[in-house]
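May I ask for whichever protein you like with its backbone structure tokens?
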Amino acid sequence: MKKLTLSVALLLLVTGCQSAYYATMEKFGVHKREILVDRVEETKDSQQESQKEFQSALDRLTTLINFDGKELQEAYDLLNDDYQASLAAASAVSANIDKVEDVAKALFDEWQDELEQYSSVNLKHESAKQLSQTQRQFERLLRSMRSSEAKMQPVLDSLQDNVLYLKHNLNAQAVSAIKGEFTGLKRDISALIADMNRSIEDSNKFIAEMNARRT
């Protein structure tokens, strides 16, 4: 995407409005279709980062349940860091999905309105068909993104439970109690990562389809 000048960036910061943002970007030759592709890319990147953080938390728990009598405070601190990083990464994923949905709605609304400007019946019909196809493709992508997003909260809740329990019970008995929760958490994180992989693949397909229409 074209770089914004400082003045434009300041304008967007002041307005804080998506419609103003889209209008300003369009003046610089960056259309909603391009913004949508960029935001899908950003969401994909945030999902990949989130996968790393969740995997790191799982690895940390794996090490923790094999507690060998060393200082548990350090293990707790590291696990808490992983939980906080996972929480931040999950929040970024949700924010990016919201941004994707917002620009897609703006794009489709604009596209629908512009259909009425055609004088050619054939061209209007073809554009309407392309709009419908793109909407279906996007709806599949959004369902995929929201599906993986929905799996994040139960994992975060479980991680938080483990962190809180350790915080107040830094002893071998606490580690033993966590072992009972570990299998379920490991399963949930593995399912989440697999679901995110499917969403990332769907993002790649959608990006390829959108870019193909520009060539």
Remarks:
- The radius of gyration is 22 Å.
- Residues 72-114 form the longest helix (43 residues).
- Residues 32-212 form a domain with the Four Helix Bundle (Hemerythrin (Met), subunit A) fold (CATH 1.20.120).
- The chain has seven helices and no strands.
